[in-house]
Amino acid sequence: MNYQKLDAALATALSDVQNSEESSLGVFIHTEPILNSAATAVLESLGVSGVTSGKDIFTATLSLNAISQLSEQSWVKYLKRSQQLGLVNRKISIGKLGV
Amino acid sequence: MRHEKLSPGLLLAFQDYQNEGDKALITHKRSLGIIAHKSPVKPTKSVVFIYCDPDADLSHLSQYNIEVNQNSGSVRTAFLPIESLDVLSEEDVIHRIKPSRKLHLRMDTAMGAVKLPEFQKKSKLTGKGVIIGIIDSGIDPKHPAFAGRILHIWDQTLPGPGVTEGGYGAEFTGAQLTISQDTAGHGTHVAGIAAGADTNYSGVAPEAELVIVRSDLQDAHIADGVRYIFRVARELGRAAVVNLSVGGHADAHDGSDSLSKVIDAETGPGRIVCCAAGNEGNANIHGQAIIPSGRTRGMRFNVPLNQIGIVWLNAWYSKDSELEVSVRSPNGFVTPYQKIITEGNAAQDYQLPDARVQLATPGPDQANGDRNFFVQIRGIDPSPVMGGVWQLRVRNTSSTDTRLDVWTLDDTSSVFFTGKSVKDALKIGSPGAASSAITVAAYTTKSKYTDIDNQVREMGLELHTITEFSSEGPLRNNGQKPDVAAPGAMIVSTLSADASFDRSSMINSKFVVMAGTSMATPFVTGLVALLLQRDPKLDPVAVKDLLRKNSAIPRKPAGTFDDKWGYGVINALNL
Q: Contact B258/A57 with Cβ under 8 angstroms?
């Protein structure tokens, strides 16, 4: 594992992984802009979508072992953990004026 | 004539009619229910409310061409020639006559407050031909406000083969759309503001077509959703605007996070993304400290009792400095100071008597070059995190002073900074921080409404100003956010039949009232759809420029930026 390529949130999450083979971690994979066929093959083998479309940011849900494998690839710049966002409606408490 | 029985406005109209005839009624038409017949030989009529004895027999009034619509009741409606008001007022059983008033068709007061009806009328723009993408909690595909205009739903939460952008979830079109549901109701409300079609509560772009992503709200999946919508629009040869009424604070608050980068990469001519600023204007989720070289500082934060399963702190500072990090529990136990770790796993565990703490202090962040550390606190199983005042302790071991910005994250949004660390700024996170996104603050256009049970509800919001809960900018790198403000409280829009709402927020069985920058954002999304209908090649820079030039902060010079207002509330009149 090349830990230098992991962001703080992903490094934290790795410590909680129970099964290193289970795909449980949502990540963003940041790569070099142009990937060779070997690189695309690695990404496709991990179930990454849209590999051949010239992008340099990919998403995937990966196991700890897959993250370790990817972090060692020279064409992978860094990996960031996917974060849970929330809906931004206001939780309102209702007052009443009467009719 | 019993003048005292007529309401003042109706009496005035009647007197003008007596003096000057039909032409005098022109100025009274809209407010007094006066209907001029197309044929000049037929009389001008008025629709009125009659307040009378409940069992009064008014059938004989038909001889004066007065059509009373009900046979009983103390309040009835009637249609009558203006001159028959004289006869009507003479009836002893009738106590009061009031005009029926012409009401406006509107989503609520929001539309008129920003001159949208005038713009729509002048421009004839409806969003036709433009795709509005909504990535949210889903949509109620059966709601009549969207009939025939939902093209695709990618439901990321259902099992299925996925789509090109992600091998998960299920895609629906046509008759299968109804398989997907919106059980939260948020996405349906948002979609209705942007694109609902209804005689009373129409959205901003009622002829736009919809591509919906029901998301689990993982930001990686939201990124997939953005790509999906723009790909579908591209295949259809349409311009598209994507609405993201979502947010979080686990990022750097400078637009360098992965979702923001995907948004920046995917937007361009005819491809726009609108994001919510967030609702943390009143919440102390952000702390800030200046830490001089060689000194130590503490930042206190409060954890409520017995509520929180896990607490995170997300902290950022300049690459030119180095900080060591420690945590103190409410009982006074502390972790050791942890240095930046550049070899091996930067995340280290510490077992305190009253908590399990994990500190991650990696080298510079690869995306922006700044330094980030993460703190994770758990209780001792099976207890939640201990309630009370905790302290984040930081020691500056470098030769330069530094500013540290920290955001609290927890599963119930109830962990807050306290004391001197509280900083009411920098509360717009991803994806609102994305450089190319149009980031929207909330403005209050309505503070009272009448619910489905005819109860008047009042919210403690000041009218016609920025909504106090709307999150403040700027970004951590001083980037200007939010961009503009739009109506976000209180907004009436479409109700999902699959969601459960308190009756006090329901207007009727099809519409519900909500508030938030979630509601302000689709207002701008709908507006952008209108602009894209007019010019399908508009890019984010051009759209922002147009919106900023047509926004203003009250009593401030045009072009003024404010951390809470952005460039001010939108005025659609001259867009």
A: yes
Q: How many CB atoms lie within 10 A of CB B402?
A: 20
SS (H, E, C) B519-566: HHHHHHHHHHHHHHHHCCCCCHHHHHHHHHHCEECCCCCCCCCECCCE
Q: Which of A5, A17, A52, A88 to mutate to test the interface with B (most CBs of B within 10 A)?
A: A88
pLDDT per position as a tens digit, B99-135: 765 544 345 689 999 999 999 999 999 999 999 999 9
Q: Residue B106's pLDDT is what?
A: 41
Distance CA B424, CA B403 (A): 15
What is the torsion angle, in degrees rounded to the nearest 10, for the CA atoms of residue B149, residue B155, residue B156 and residue B161? Answer: -110
Cα Rg, chain A, nearest whole Å: 19
Please compute, for residue B317, the number of CA atoms within 13 A of its CA located in the half-sphere on the CB side.
29
Do A86 and B314 count as a contact with CB atoms less than 8 A apart? no
Return the amino acid letter for B302. N
The sign of the dihedral angle between the CA atoms of B446, B452, B456, B459 is negative
Q: Record the pTM.
A: 0.85
Question: Per-residue pLDDT for A83 more than 90?
Answer: yes
The kind and range of the H/E element at B349 are: strand B347-352
- Measured between CB atoms, which of B164, B184, B262 is closest to A57? B262
